[in-house]
Amino acid sequence: MKSATAKSLGMFVLVFGVWAAPAGAAEEAAPTFTKDVAPIFQAKCEACHRPGSIAPMSLVTYQEARPWARSIKDRVAARQMPPWHVDRTVGIQAFKNDRSLTDAEIDTVVRWVDAGAPRGNPADAPASVDWPDESKWYFAEQFDGPPDLIVESAPFTMAAEANDAWWKPRSPTGLTEDRWARAIEIRPGTVAGRKITHHAIARLVQEEVDPAIRRANAANAANGIDRSRTAGTFMEWAVGKQGEIMRPGAGKLMLADSEIQWDIHYSAAGEEITDSAQLGVYLYPKDQTPEHRQVLHIMGAGGVDIPPNSVAVTEGFFPLQRGARIESYQPHMHLRGKAMSMEAILPTGRRRLLSHVGDFNFNWHNSYVYADDSAPLLPKGTLIKVTAWHDNTAANRANPDPDVWVGYGDRTVDEMAHAWVNVTYFDEDDYAAEVAQREAALAQRGGE
Ligand code: HEC
Q1: Burial class (CB in 10 A: 0-12, 13-18, 19+), 93
Q2: What separation in Å is there between the alpha carbon of 113 and the centre of ligand 1?
C-alpha cells in the first residue's frame, strides 16, 4: 500500500513536472522564435535593440536576432541583459519600470538557444510593436500640447569612433517666477541623437527655500561637499524611459532664475552625430499649487577614502524631516562602484532594508521606481542610510588602476558614493492618511 502510494505520487510528480517545465521533453517542445522568444524580446529588449536605438544590434526580426543567439544566451543567463541590477532576494521587489526577465523567461531564451535557435512557424509571430513617434513629445497629447517650458543643453558632437564622453553643460530655465512642474520629459533633440545618447540627466539647480530640507541636506553633507544648491528636481532620460508624471496632488517646485545642470553620457555610433538634449516641463497652472512637494535628494556620503588594492565601505545618513514616500532609488558611483544599499532606520530603532544593488555597473545608471503599493512610507525622524561598496582591486574588471588611492571627485577615475532618491513629503495629517490608505489597500489585497 505504502509503496503503491509512493509510486503513484511519483508518477504524478513526473507528469506534473513535464507539464510545468518541458525541459527534458521531446524535441518538438523546444521554444521557437516566433511563438516564444519574440514576445519576450518585444517586451524586454526592443526598447534598445531596434534600428536607430542605443544597442549595437536589432533583435526585432529572426534574421537579425539569429546570429547573436550564443551571446544572447550568455548575457541573459548571467542577468547582464536587460540591464537591471537590483538584488532580487532582498528588499522591495515591485517596480514600475522593471525590465528584468523572470526566471521562466530566462529559461525560455536559454532553451531556445540550446535547441539551435529555431525560427518556428511564421504564423505564430506576434504583431510588431508600434514604437511611439520619436520626433514628438510623448505627453503632448495627454496635456493638449507641447511642454510649457523647453530647456536645451549646449550641443555636443560625438565623433564616429571615440571613447565615451560625459557632457556637463548648464542652461538657465528662463523662469522669471516660481512654478510647479506636474510632468517632465527629457529626450535627445534629434532622432539621430538617440544613437549616441546613452543616458541624459537634468538636475534643477536652485537655492533650497524650505528650512527643514536645508537642515536635512546639511546633516547629510560630509567632508565639506556643498549640496545646498543641488537638491532640486529632476529626471533622467534613459532608453525606454520617456518621462515622469507626478502623482496626483504632487509637483516639483521650480524657482525663478533656476538652472538645469546636464549630465549626459554619449557613446560613439560609427558616424559623427551632433545633438543637444531637451528637457520639456509641463507646468501646473499659475494659480494651482499642488499639496505635496516632490524633491530629488542626494543621499549618502560626500567623501570617500579608498586605499589601493582594497574593498572600501562608505556610509551616509539622511534624516527625513517629515513623513514621506520614497519614490525611486538610483545608486551613483563610478568605475570602482561595486554595490549600494538603501536602508531605513525608523524612529523606533527598527531597520528596514529598502533596496540593494548587488552588481553595480557604471555603464547603467538605472533609476529603480517603486510601484504604487510598494513605495515605502516612512515617518518623520527616519534616517535613510546609504552604504556604498567600492572594489579597488584587480578583481574589478572595470578598475583602471588598483594601485592608486581614490578619493571623491567628478572624473570617472575619482569616486562618488551617493544615491539619487525621489521623495514626496507630507504634513502630519496627510502622512497618517497615506499610511491608512496603504494599509487598507494591502488588507484588501491580502483578503482576496
Ligand atoms: C536599456 C537598453 C537595453 C535593453 C533593455 C537591452 N539591451 Fe542588450 N545591450 C544594450 C547595449 C547598449 C548594449 C551594448 C553595450 C553592452 O554590451 O553593454 C547591449 C548589448 C547586448 C548584447 C551583447 C552584444 C555583443 O556585442 O555580443 C546582447 C547579447 C544583448 N544586449 C541582448 C539583449 C537581450 C536579449 C535583451 C532583452 C532580453 C536586451 N539585450 C535588453 C542595451 C539594452
Answers
A1: middle
A2: 16
